[in-house]
Amino acid sequence: MAAPTKTAPIETAESTLTLESRVATLTFERDDVRNALTGTALCDDILATLAWANARLDVSVLIITGAGKAFSSGGDVKAMRDKAGMFAGTPSEIEAEYRSGIQRVPAAMHAAEVVTIAAVNGPAIGAGCDLACMCDLRLGSDAAAFGETFVNLGIIPGDGGAWFLQRLIGYQRAADMTFRGRIVRAEEARALGLLLEVTAPEALVPRATELAAEIAAKPPQALRYAKRLMKLAQRSELPDFLDYCAALQSFCHGTQDHAEAMAAFLDKREARYTGR
Question: Are residues 170 and 249 in the same domain?
């Protein structure tokens, strides 16, 4: 849908990708199917965008949002009913489809080098809810809604949602959402910790862009290292983690951006970072 341009130097099939001032924005453009992640090219767009952003040192933040009424409705329920597409075949064949298909998204999101922000413009249901939970930060309009609704269809979160959700809001609250399959509206989502902020619909993307710009204004290398440390801390023992912190910190102390940050702080001026 978006051909390579000066601001989006990769092709995306069913999304719009832009880049401005170190902030990339990926907007799903399949409102006709409520931005479903199965039966569309949206997963491929996510994967291509993450690979591009990780390789581009002039990208610090990626905003993910949806055009139309929904953030993402997750899986294509009609295809599930009809046992079509990735839901066709034997259990072994369906398992292989999950592994080679939608499960590539949580792996790639978890490995993202850039800060990821979900701007949840409407319902985020099933795999759509899980995609939002894979992001570092989530903002939502007052039309946002979250549903870990797999059990209502007699299935489980096959995209890793049970791993992400409980780490985000705790086991008990995640269990409540998962076992009951209920819909959580915007204000409750903020109270649970699913959303950082709630805005009016027209203010969502501007606010996400404002937050992204604030983050992207930080020293690029230090920002990526801080993201890496946050992820590593989830799976490391403290002694090993501290060793890694010391190694990265010693590198940061030798960067031009660190020297510029110190000079700007002492001179009481805005810093000008180069990513070196």
Answer: no
Its pTM surpasses 0.85: yes
Q: In terms of Cα–Cα distance, which of 70, 68, 72, 211 is closest to 139?
A: 211
Q: Is residue 183 part of a domain?
A: yes
Residues paired with residue 141 on neighbouring β-strands, in sequence order: 199
Both 202 and 231 in a single domain? no
* Count of domains for the chain: 2
* CATH number of the domain where residue 41 is located: 3.90.226.10
**Overall size of the chain counted in residues:** 276
One domain for residues 25 and 120: yes
Is 4 within a domain? no
Residuewise pLDDT in 10s, the chain (276 residues): 554 444 556 999 999 999 999 999 999 999 999 999 999 999 999 999 999 999 999 999 999 999 999 999 999 899 999 999 999 999 999 999 999 999 999 999 999 999 999 999 999 999 999 999 999 999 999 999 999 999 999 999 999 999 999 999 999 999 999 999 999 999 999 999 999 999 999 999 999 999 999 999 999 999 999 999 999 999 999 999 999 999 999 999 999 999 999 999 999 999 999 989
> Is the same domain home to 111 and 63?
yes
The CA–CA distances, whole Å, from 223 to 75, 104, 226, 227 equal 33, 24, 5, 6
